[in-house]
From TrEMBL:
This is Dihydrofolate reductase family protein. Gene3D superfamilies: Dihydrofolate Reductase, subunit A. Residues 3-187 form the Bacterial bifunctional deaminase-reductase C-terminal domain. InterPro entries: DHFR-like_dom_sf, RibDG_C. It holds the Pfam family RibD_C. Residues 16-35 are annotated as: Disordered. GO terms for molecular function: 5-amino-6-(5-phosphoribosylamino)uracil reductase activity. One of its GO terms (biological process) is riboflavin biosynthetic process. It comes from the Bacteria.
Length: 194
């Protein structure tokens, strides 16, 4: 059986929207895109690389998968994240995509995401990692399918924006297994389901 791990950048008030670029996710008139850039440092880069070095497959919601194609697919800049993302098997949960041919090694999981991921998780294979994809994470968490979280907690509040846990979620306990503070005040907290 595979496990599902989530890595999510989040503010102190729980916002997860538009971390990387001003135009990344402006839904709902979100005005703070790119809020995470000022918190990049060597410690954060090292911890994210540590996660990328773990063997496994990736799991995306449609919107994040499409965004990652524009940001990462086929870049020829020597960035190790590019090589990892291009080579990884990428499962895409979507009810609207007809295929996942736009990025190599991508496989479409059509229909209901919870059912598709539950079937995939029950099969033998490599563990599944999710980066972003907050709507997908919410639905998988509500179904009890998330085994681990890496929360990259940024020292700011935005007051607006999509939240990681927005709406009903079941009581679920996690144990803190490790934490790292960066030089810019970001706390990287690793949690595993109890």
């Amino acid at each position: 059986m595979r496990s599902v791990s989530v890595t999510m950048n989040i503010t102190l008030d729980g916002a997860v929207q538009g971390l990387g670029r001003p135009d990344e996710d402006t839904r709902g008139g979100f005005p703070h895109g790119g809020w995470g850039n000022r918190y990049q440092d060597e410690v954060l880069g090292r911890e994210m690389a540590r996660g990328m070095n773990q063997p496994g497959d990736m799991l995306f919601g449609r919107r994040t998968w499409e965004d990652f194609i524009g940001a990462w697919a086929g870049r020829d800049d020597g960035n190790p994240f590019t090589a990892h993302l291009d080579a990884a098997t990428k499962y895409v949960a979507s009810t609207t995509l007809e295929n996942a041919d736009a990025w190599q090694n991508s496989i479409l999981l059509p229909g209901d995401a919870v059912s598709s991921v539950a079937r995939l998780k029950a099969e033998p294979g490599r563990d599944l990692a999710i980066v972003g994809s907050a709507a997908l994470v919410r639905s998988l968490h509500a179904a009890g399918l998330v085994d681990r979280y890496t929360l990259v907690i940024h020292p700011l509040t935005l007051g607006v924006g999509a939240r990681l846990f927005d709406g009903p979620a079941p009581l679920t306990e996690f144990a803190l297994t490790r934490s790292v503070a960066t030089t810019k005040g970001v706390l990287i907290a690793y949690y595993e389901r109890v």
